[in-house]
Structures are given as C-alpha cells and as structure tokens.
Design brief:
Blueprint: H1 3-50, H2 64-68, E1 72-78, E2 84-85, E3 92-97, H3 100-110, E4 115-120, E5 132-133, E6 136-137, H4 145-163, E7 164-174, H5 179-190, E8 195-201, E9 219-225, E10 247-248, E11 254-259, H6 276-279, E12 283-285, E13 292-293, E14 300-302, H7 318-326, E15 330-335, E16 338-345, E17 357-358, H8 368-376, H9 389-399, E18 406-409, H10 416-428, E19 433-438, H11 444-458, E20 469-479, H12 484-490, H13 496-503, E21 507-508, E22 518-522, E23 526-531, H14 538-546, E24 550-556, E25 574-579, H15 581-591
Parallel strand pairs: 3-19, 3-20, 4-7, 4-18, 8-17, 18-19, 23-24, 24-25
Antiparallel strand pairs: 1-20, 2-20, 5-6, 7-9, 8-9, 10-11, 11-16, 12-13, 12-14, 15-16, 21-22, 22-23
Bound molecules: S-adenosylmethionine.
S-adenosylmethionine (SAM) binds near residues 99, 131, 387, 411 and 415.
C-alpha cells in the first residue's frame, strides 16, 4: 500500500470511527430525550389524575397580602387612644383594622372553634370601583375579575371555617353577580349537606335601575352550618304575616283556627298509619248552645267526612276533645248548612322557623337606615349602600340563641353588624361580643367605622348611647427566619395583644416585680399572666396568693415545653400554655411555610 493510499485509508477509518461514535451519542441523546419525554408525560398524567373533573375551577392570580405571609408573619398592635370603656359588666368588643386575611390568621390562633356566628357582606364585584385586588380596583371588564374575587373569598372562607364552633353558622350576603360562584365555592368548603338555604332579602324595594334586564329589588344571604350539630332557631310569630290568620288569646298567646278534620296527605280514614278507631269517631254538638262532646250524646252527630263523602280523620284523638271544650279551645261552626269543628292550634306558635324570603320594609337599606346613618355621622357620600341592621339582627337570631355569642364580621366597613349586636344586647340584656375586621381603604376604619361605633356607644344627636367596651388593633409583621429558634425569639414580647384577645382579659394590673418579661392583666373572672422568660415562673406563686380568680399563664418557651411539673404546687386555679409554638403551628397550617 502506497503512503498516499495508507493515509487515505487512515482518514476514512477515522471518519468511520467518528461517525460511529456520533451515531452512538445521538442514540444516547435520543434515549435521554425519550426518557425525559416519558417522565414529563408521567408527571402530566399525575397532575391530570389529581386535578378536578367536577366543580368550580379558576385561575390562581397570586394576591399580595397572601404572598406577604411567606416572608412575614402577622401580629397585633393595640391603639390605646381608641379604647372605649363604658360598660364594666359587658364584654369587650374588638375592631381589627387592616386586611382581613391577616386578621383572620391571627384569629385562627385566638379564636379557633370559638365563634358562634359569622356574618359577612363582602364586596359584590358588581361595579368597577367595588373593591381592590393587589391595590388596584378590579375593573368590571377585567377578564380575570371572577378568578380574582374567588381567589380572595375562598382563602378567607377556609380560615373562617376554622374559627367557627362545631355548632356555629356562617351567613354571607351577595347579589346576582357572584351568587353562582360563591354558592359553589362555599359549598365546597362547608359541604353541601350543611347548606341551610339561600334567603332572598328585599333590600331595595325602589329597585336597581337596569336598561334591558329585570329590575333588581333583592339580594341573597347564604347560610351554612359548620356541622349538622346545630339547628336554625325558631323566631317569634309575626302576627303581621298575612299568609296565616293569627289570632291573639286573652293570655296574649297566639293561635290559629284549624279545622279539626284533617285534609290532604295522610288524612283518609283508610290510611294505614292510623288506626281508624283512634281518629275516626263521632263528635256530638248541641245545635242550640254550640256545646261539643264525645261523651254526651247531643242532638248533632258528626264524623270527619268531607264534602265528597270521603271518610277522613280528626286531627286529635277523642280523649282530649271534652277537655278542649272546657277551655274554649274547640267550637262548632255552621258553614253551608254543614257543621265544622275548629280548634285553637298553638303547636308551633311559640315561634316558627324563619322563612326563605325577607321582604318587610325594615330590611330595606335605602331610606330609614341611610337617614339614621346621617344622624350618626354625616358621611353619606362615603357610604351609599348601608345594610339594614334588622337583616343582621334576624340573621343572628336565626342562627343562635346564645346571649353570650361571639359574632364575627370580617368585611365590616361602616357599622351594621356591631350596631345590630349592640341593639340586640340592649333589647334582651345579652352580652354578645362582636369582632370586626375591616381594611382602612380611604381611611374608612379610622374615619368612619370607629367614629360610628363610638357615636352609637356614647350617643348621638338626641339618641342615647348604648354603653359598651371596645379595643382597636392593627396588624404588624415579623420577618421570617430560616431557623425556628430565631423565629421564636422574634415573637418575644409580640404575643401579648393576641393573648389578651384570646383570654378576653385586657385591664393591666400592677404587680410587684413587674417588667417587660412579666405582664399581668385581668377580667372579671380571670387573671392573664404573660411570661416572656421562664425565670419569671417564680412570681406566679406570689400572684396566686393575691387573688382568688383563676389564672392562665402563657410562658415563652423554645419548644412545646410544658411547665406543669414545676408549677404543680399552684393548685388547679392555674392553667399553663406555652408561646409561641402554637401560634407558629397555626400560621404554618394557613401559610404553608
Ligand atoms: C360591602 S362592604 C360592607 C358593608 C357593611 N356590611 C356595612 O353595612 O357597613 C365591604 C367592605 O369590606 C372591606 N374590604 C374589602 N376587602 C377587604 C379585605 N381584604 N380586608 C378587609 N376589609 C375588606 C371594604 O373596604 C368594604 O368596606
């Protein structure tokens, strides 16, 4: 082989080798691309399996106030200048200014499973200047406006559910714009079986003007239980209700005239569920005096036979008829030459289940209440759509009979819920407590909500005040730390306001050796001691010696350490809790850090 042909051969050989390795690498690469693709598809499949097939879906548009909680955690700061103490025997109501997502997260620690009733009137997402998302008004033409609204409401409703007692109830008002989405969203959180119905409230009898659609005169209130351990409460009979012909007795109780002969379903004498002899029997009437008896054979004998000759049954058995006659609870009436028997029905007249349509004029917001608002504070242009407190009062009464109920409204704005609670307390001597959260958009919390509460408590114009107590809080933030110990340390000295609210114990008391690590507060029944250093434990004995009240001590700890053993000598008057781990656990659950 010549030198030339040898080198040509070498070059060819090298080229083949190159090509071979190139093909191998291509194969490997193809393989890895292929494997990657399979993995991607598997991931996709997993996601699809997890994703919803039925229900409400929307675009997740991150909300600044929610994102903030990934790097900062909320705490409360009290504004002492706004404290009102006008009723030493009453509860202390709470107003928290700032975003309700943060306020609710704090309440998830202070009021877990403790709220009797939540009433909210969120922005309805109806107009362009209805509400702000990430500091910008959500325009009526924003294609994500429903997604943003759902994002906002869903997160808050989930936390709110954790605050309700087992037998607690929530009521959310809304109009037609977001009703369908809200209904599905709330049903998913509270479950379909806990729906208590959607009430229609005629809040605007003068109607909302429309060009081409129906004129709106009502809005809705959606009621849900947290669990089926509750029931809607009966409300007093409304004698004005013309659907029933209520009559008032000499003892002022209400009754209805009811025909003794049963009508409708399950009323024929052949119905299996009745023994004919029990309810199909003769009753005698004295045609001259109107006397009714089953024992005495008087001149008229009647059976429960209807006009078509059908044998029916009496609504009462024969052993009670003569007694009913003695108390004038049963009487005979001649109608179209036929005798009918009527009796006074009082069965459910101690109250009746509230109905699903509330249409009385007192539920209308526009006239009566706007005028009253003008009296309380002259800010009508700031506040064009007030709610009627009567709707809130009826909602509270339908949901709870507890006169010490804790009632939360986290879209409070101006006044309705707390006015309703104060009026109810005044009316029945109750001690219901309200907790309100509202943002300070256009300084509404400071310049409208608070002054209105103060005016109603202290009186306005010629209207006397309703004495009550109030504390005003704002939210502040603590920066997140990577190490849990560093984070715990940051909560040192920052839990006091939350603990005051949790224990409803606000009045500071002077104790010997008090310092920033040992703070003491009292209410009528309880002493709250906040210890930011375990060395301070020794002071608890002294404290116990000075009071007969029960003591709850919150002790700062770098873990869930319980100091029960060291404090066992302090009798059962002392309850020990540790901070801040339970607070952090609550936040972890909500914010997922
Ligand atoms: C429809 S208004 C409630 C009116 C109230 N029911 C009344 O009669 O006075 C809704 C209120 O919720 C407040 N709000 C909206 N988003 C909020 C949020 N994220 N946190 C706290 N308040 C909010 C708004 O400022 C507005 O005042």
């Amino acid at each position: 082989m010549s030198e030339n042909s040898q080198s040509t051969y070498q070059i060819q050989w090298q080229t083949v080798e190159h090509l071979k390795s190139f093909i191998e690498s291509m194969k490997a690469e193809k393989q890895s691309v292929f494997i990657r693709k399979i993995k991607d598809l598997e991931e996709e499949l997993k996601k699809l399996k997890k994703s919803k097939r039925y229900g409400l879906v929307w675009e997740d548009k991150p909300e600044d106030v929610v994102e903030r909680c990934k790097t900062e955690l909320p705490v409360l700061v009290g504004d002492e200048t706004k404290t009102i103490n006008e009723n030493p025997d009453g509860p202390t109501h709470i107003l928290i200014e700032w975003d309700n997502y943060h306020a609710l997260s704090v309440l998830a620690y202070t009021h877990k499973n403790s709220i009797d009733f939540i009433y909210i009137d969120p922005p309805y997402n109806t107009w362009s200047t209805d509400w702000k998302y990430n500091n910008a008004y959500v325009d009526a033409n924003d294609s994500f406006r429903h997604s943003k609204w759902l994002n906002m409401i869903e997160k808050r409703l989930r936390v709110a559910k954790e605050l309700l007692k087992k037998d607690g109830t929530i009521c959310v008002t809304i109009d037609d714009y977001e009703l369908p989405r809200l209904w599905l969203c709330i049903e998913e959180i509270f479950w379909e079986s806990n729906l208590l119905w959607v009430i229609s409230i005629r809040n605007n009898p003068k109607w909302r003007m429309t060009q081409r659609k129906f004129s709106l005169i009502h809005e809705y209130a959606i009621f849900f239980w947290k669990s089926e351990e509750s029931s809607i409460k009966k409300l007093p009979v409304n004698p004005e209700d013309k659907t029933h012909n209520y009559k008032q007795d000499t003892d002022w109780s209400w009754y209805l005239d009811v025909n003794l002969r049963k009508q409708g379903a399950d009323s024929t004498a052949t119905t299996k569920s009745w023994k004919i002899s029990d309810r199909y029997y003769p009753i005698y009437i004295d045609s001259k005096t109107g006397k009714v008896s089953t024992v005495e054979k008087l001149d008229i004998e009647i059976y429960p036979i209807d006009s078509k000759g059908e044998k029916r049954i009496w609504r009462r058995s024969n052993d009670v008829i003569d007694e009913m006659y003695k108390s004038w609870d049963i009487w005979a009436k001649k109608q179209k030459n036929e005798y009918q028997l009527y009796f006074k029905f009082r069965g459910w007249l101690d109250g009746e289940m509230p109905k699903t349509m509330w249409y009385d004029s007192e539920f209308s917001a526009s006239e009566h209440w706007t005028q009253l608002l003008d009296k309380i504070l002259w800010e009508r242009e700031l506040f064009q759509y007030p709610k009627s407190p009567f709707a809130v009062i009826k909602s509270i009464r339908s949901a709870t009979v507890n006169k010490n109920a804790v009632i939360l409204d986290f879209f409070a704005w101006s006044w309705t819920t707390w006015h309703a609670v104060l009026e109810l307390n005044k009316e029945d001597g109750g001690n219901r407590q309200f907790i309100l959260c509202t943002n300070n958009e256009n300084k509404i919390a400071e310049e409208v909500t608070y002054p209105r509460i103060r005016n109603v408590i202290q009186g306005y114009g010629d209207v006397p005040g309703i004495p009550a107590n109030l504390r005003y809080y704002r939210t502040d933030f603590i920066g997140m730390e990577k190490s849990i110990d560093d984070l715990r340390k940051k909560f040192m000295g920052r839990c006091t306001e939350m603990l005051q609210i949790r224990e409803s114990c606000f009045t500071p008391i002077q104790v010997e050796d008090e310092n920033e690590y040992f703070q003491v507060f009292e209410s009528k029944e309880t002493i709250l001691a906040v210890l930011y250093h375990p060395y301070e434990i020794a002071k608890l004995q002294k404290l116990a010696d000075t009071t007969a009240k029960s003591i709850v001590a919150y002790i700062f700890s770098m873990g869930m350490e319980i100091f029960q053993e060291e404090l066992s000598y302090l009798s059962n008057r002392l309850r020990i809790e540790t901070i801040p781990d339970e607070i952090l656990e609550t936040y972890k659950k909500i914010f997922g850090f």
